[in-house]
Amino acid sequence: MEETKSSKNKGKNKYWLWLTTAVFVVMQSLPVQAQTVLESIEETGVLKVAVREDAAPFGYVDSAKNLQGYCLDFLALLEEKLKQKLKRNTLAVRLLKSTTSNRFQLIQQGLIDLECGPNTIRELSLSDVAFSRAFFNTEIQFLIAKEQEDRIDLEGDLADTSIGVIRNTGIEQLIRESYPLARLVLFSGITARDRGVQAVEQGNIDAMASDGILLKAEAAEQNLPVDEYILIPQNTASFDNKLSANSDRYGMIIRGNDPQWQDFINSVISSKESQQLFKQWFDLVESFPQQSNN
């Protein structure tokens, strides 16, 4: 039955009366603390997390269409650590898919407690979102055909060199600023890095620029011949070029203003078990060929 105008206003007035009263009561009483993540998990028995499917080796879909990656193993470890801390026999894990576009919003909207992936630690204007301590360091690198190694000089201007980048990323902006004479080829969507690596293999672009660890994993996933493709520079932290000092530290995205949760996540990252997981996943990926030291 459709409400009359007067009944709508009456309901609206009741709402505002309730809101005003609620604010008055809060102001007259002791501050009410929001429930922490650990308190919420203890009450509900549910851990809410998200992982990307386009960021091997952190999260990716294998040939059988199953989600794989370091983050899944880390989340399994986190589940066990939580059960120990909260003295629970069981714990449900709700897993969502995250993207570069929604990962912060998932935290802000309370849909997840943690997002695991290649999240560059940086200053945030969002008070309700924070990063864990760093769990991985990487640098910007270029995937190129080995035969191009002598031609592509990162200390030069890369004029007329076609470089693939993922649209609307910090790397796109950095490459534009560092090499204004280069010809940028933009890739978008969750298959952007995949298609960029394919474009290098097909000879459609000279190089694909991205975080080194993600390029290594994608190249390995596509079975690029290791004797025909390399990553340059070998280490941007020690290589004198325009991208020096642009290394990235990855952290988990977590809720802000919750030091108890942040400390717990940091303790899991620092644990012996976490270090073993790190070694299992990344020692294999790091074997992809680097630029020679000549």
Give the arrangement of secondary structure elements.
Blueprint: H1 5-28, H2 37-44, E1 46-51, E2 54-55, E3 59-61, E4 67-68, H3 70-86, E5 92-97, H4 103-108, E6 114-116, E7 129-138, E8 140-145, E9 162-166, H5 170-178, E10 183-187, H6 192-201, E11 207-211, H7 212-221, E12 229-232, E13 248-255, H8 259-269, H9 272-285
Parallel strand pairs: 1-5, 1-6, 9-10, 9-11
Antiparallel strand pairs: 2-3, 3-4, 6-13, 7-13, 8-11, 8-12
Summarize the structure in words.
The chain is α/β, with parallel strands linked by helices and 294 residues long. It folds into 2 domains: 37-137 and 249-285, Periplasmic binding protein-like II (D-Maltodextrin-Binding Protein, domain 2), CATH 3.40.190.10; 140-246, Periplasmic binding protein-like II (D-Maltodextrin-Binding Protein, domain 2), CATH 3.40.190.10. Helices cover 37% and strands 22% of the residues. The chain contains 9 helices and 13 strands. The chain has helices at 5-28, 37-44, 70-86, 103-108, 170-178, 192-201, 212-221, 259-269, 272-285, and strands at 46-51, 54-55, 59-61, 67-68, 92-97, 114-116, 129-138, 140-145, 162-166, 183-187, 207-211, 229-232, 248-255. The strands form 3 sheets. It has a 5-stranded mixed sheet. Strands 10-9-11-8-12 form a 5-stranded mixed sheet, with helices on both faces. A hairpin with a 5-residue loop joins strand 3 and strand 4. Helix 3 packs antiparallel against helix 9. The protein is elongated. The model is unreliable at 1-33 and 236-240 (pLDDT under 50). Keywords: Signal, Transport. This is Extracellular solute-binding protein family 3. Residues 46-285 form the Solute-binding protein family 3/N-terminal domain. Belongs to the bacterial solute-binding protein 3 family. Residues 1-34 form the signal peptide.
